[in-house]
TrEMBL record:
It comes from the Bacteria. Signal peptide: none annotated. PANTHER family: CARBOXYLESTERASE. It comes from Streptomyces aurantiogriseus. Residues 14-71 form the Carboxylesterase type B domain. This is Carboxylesterase type B domain-containing protein. The lineage of its organism: Bacteria, Bacillati, Actinomycetota, Actinomycetes, Kitasatosporales.
């Protein structure tokens, strides 16, 4: 959950005194954690959360209550049967290089290739 200081780099694209931290889904939970973390104080001025409210009760049930409600976990499944309930969707031999070479593969994308601000280069 590292958050590098954005203010020194913000002057290249905007107002260094108006830094907004955005998080969506799991990133929203991370953003909430930054709101509460004293070590993140002063690193940003505003936050935008999408689909992950800070008041979420996700992960708040204890194991005993979850199991009493019939909710099994992967760890319980493995402990009971010695194997997991799911099967891999891809062969174990599939790796990042194979995924990247396929049609519509997973590849890094430079969304800011036309914006050559100095700070982009410092982040690489």
């Amino acid at each position: 959950m590292a958050l590098p200081p954005a203010r020194p780099h913000a002057c290249g694209v905007g107002d260094p005194y108006n830094v907004t931290l955005f998080g969506e889904s799991a990133g929203g939970h991370s953003t909430c954690a930054h709101l509460a973390a004293p070590s993140s104080a002063g690193l940003f001025d505003r936050v935008v959360l999408q689909s992950a409210p800070c008041t979420s009760t996700m992960g708040k049930r204890n194991r005993r209550d979850a199991l009493a409600e019939g909710v099994a976990t992967a760890a319980d499944d493995f402990a009971r049967t010695g194997r997991t309930a799911w099967k891999p969707t891809t062969p174990a031999a599939t790796n990042a290089q194979q995924l990247a070479s396929g049609p519509g593969g997973i590849k890094p994308v430079d969304f800011a290739k036309d914006h050559h601000y100095a700070f982009w280069k410092t982040l690489r």
